[in-house]
Specification:
Layout lengths: L1 H18 L5 E3 L2 E7 L9 E10 L5 E7 L6 E5 L5 E2 L8 E5 L2 E6 L2 E9 L7 E14 L3 E14 L9 H10 L4 E9 L2 E7 L6 E5 L12 E4 L5 E7 L6 H6 L6 E7 L2 E9 L8 E6 L2 H5 L9 E3 L4 E2 L9
Parallel strand pairs: 12-18
Antiparallel strand pairs: 1-2, 2-3, 3-9, 4-8, 5-10, 6-9, 7-8, 10-11, 12-13, 13-16, 14-17, 15-16, 15-19, 17-18, 19-20, 20-21
Length: 319
Amino acid sequence: MKKFASLALVLILLAVTLAVRAQPVRVDAVEVELVADRTAAQPGQPLMLGLRIRHDPKWHTYWRNPGDSGLPTTLALSLPDGWTSGGFVWPAPTRVFVGPLANYAYEGEVLLPVPVTVPASATSGTVRLSGTAQWLMCRDVCIPGEARLTLALPVGGEARPSTDAPLFAAARSAAPAQHLAVDAGLADGRMSLTFELPQAAAAEFFPYGEGLISAPASQRLHRVDGNGRWRLDLRAAADATPEAFEKAGFHGASAGVLVVDGRPYEVAARRVAAAGEGGTFVSATLEAAAAAAPSGGSGGRLLQAGGGLAGGGLAGGPA
């Protein structure tokens, strides 16, 4: 009798697991899947869905601002009446160099979370969630991808962390959860971001607006003083104007993601009269040409004060 009870329990657990994991869809060099952070949806409680993307080696897809080329990944969800969803909670990307260009992108495995509101009126049973994902996958060539994804999820009952819960936790830690006030100055083709933190050994900025800075150019970090003030110098795009920066949020609004020592911050930028000057050089990201050299990498390598190279990611999108 105990054997039958154990078998029944295993079958129940298997049914729950299958209910929250649909079959992944493979398109060329990318595999995609619609997943949830819990094994069941609860009426009146928030739920996190996610687009899980697995890339073949050396292939990548794009962040919300793709950089020099590319298109951001999208997911159009089809939800039951009363259910609503937000946009992607974007993890910070890495710079991926393709020749002289630099893209803001993801490699390896990444999860793009989507917050979903489940109405209090949701009835118990099983709900079928679906969505159409579209992306551009690139290596030496670029291929558009599209997939129709589905997920059957129980409503009501016990909601435990799903097998994908660690991916959601990693995505949360790689997405900015805290605002950082930044003074942004622009002069003579150079943009400076001055901020205050107790410590900073490496920094890299990813703007939300396209065409504002030179994505392949080095970003140089300076210590302004001994009181926790730092400045990151960027090369402005050749055709960028002060009006373009204002339109992109450099007036107190969210303007991008600044990754400092692996921690992402959402930049609340305030325009100042001119770019900052002086200070002590701390470190710099490599330019496209240096990253493509045999001693370089595909991005995320650091030139330290004193001229040494350090490996490791400057921006922490899940890989």
